[in-house]
RNA polymerase, sigma subunit, ECF family (Blastococcus tunisiensis), 402 residues
Amino acid sequence: MPAPDVERVFREHYGRAVAVLVRLLGDIDAAEEAVQEAFLTAVRRWPTDGAPPSPAGWIVTTARNRAIDRLRRESTRADRSRKAALLRADDAPQEGGSVPDDRLRLIFTCCHPALSTAAQVALTLRLLGGLTTAEVAAAFLVPEPTMAQRLVRAKAKIRAARVPYRVPTEAELPDRLRAVLAVVYLVFTEGHSASSGDRVVREDLCAEAIRLGRLLAELMPDEPEVSGLLALMLLTEARRPARVGPSGELVLLADQDRARWDRALIAEGQTLVRECLRRNQPGPYQIQAAITAVHSAAATAADTDWRQVVALYDQLMAVAPSPVVALHRAVAVAEVDGPAAGLALVADLDLPRHHLLPAVLADLLRRLGRAEEARAAYDEALALAGNAADRAFLRGRRARLG
């Protein structure tokens, strides 16, 4: 099995393997170390021995065996026997409760109130999504060393606070929900618009986030924000077939072939949005889903109801203001009132270390005929973009300035 296939298995199954090992070991660091050793073994063996019939099962079994060996070497006799027996009990019935999946159990553990929200999201992205520290840092718009320290502190806090790896009670679930939804959405957004690498989309992360979103919706059917997040992801995922051109290039929403959109996902997402509207308990994910539903309902880009989009962004700014939301609102305002109106809104925004702000600025300047300023803004965006497809798109736009 070539190395890229080992990487694919890592992306798809790292989170599950860590979750299983955390359940068995009760220790996040030990679980991560065992899983990483298993993947290193796979890198050495699979290219010559061939891939096992069940790569994910092989990884979990190998990681468990590595952990058993370490416990035998390092534990006291009594503790060694107890833990080794626990590690062999992987076929034993799962602990009862409301969360029926190891990965969701690990999410709720990482989202314990002992941790800050930022640490909760970062740690779960690392453990469940299999994102590298650099990718988690990009999701948070912070330098990689800062994120590495944050992850170390988060795991140390879990150990010091003796946070249990268990299913939260029914009373605890709502309080943990906000951070859990943030985790799932950040996994999805990293998959939908990869922050690094050569691909525009990482389908594995999108699929994992949607899978977790469906499980959350099954677990908490009366929580409108859970339905809103699932609707947002489904409606966004529906556009994925049209987001990438034949050569792997990025295709903007206005230029996409809407015949390639997944109509089944759109129908499912729009149904969820209508259910959210009937509940009349608007939250950030529901409003974002409603915005995406407006786009998905337009037969062509020209048919988009931009005034409705601006109104929804106004509502989103009222409940969850942020520079990113303000930037997207400015783009919508530019469609309604012209690029000068959008530019006036963008000028005061501060969004460091992210290429999106100078990219939007460049496009508005281009539309206003201010080519030199647009060129400088494209240069700034190129310096910040971490994804090869994003850089290629920006270079193409810059070249067309003449």
About this structure: The domain at 3-88 is CATH 1.10.1740 (Rna Polymerase Sigma Factor; Chain: A). The chain has a mean pLDDT of 85.
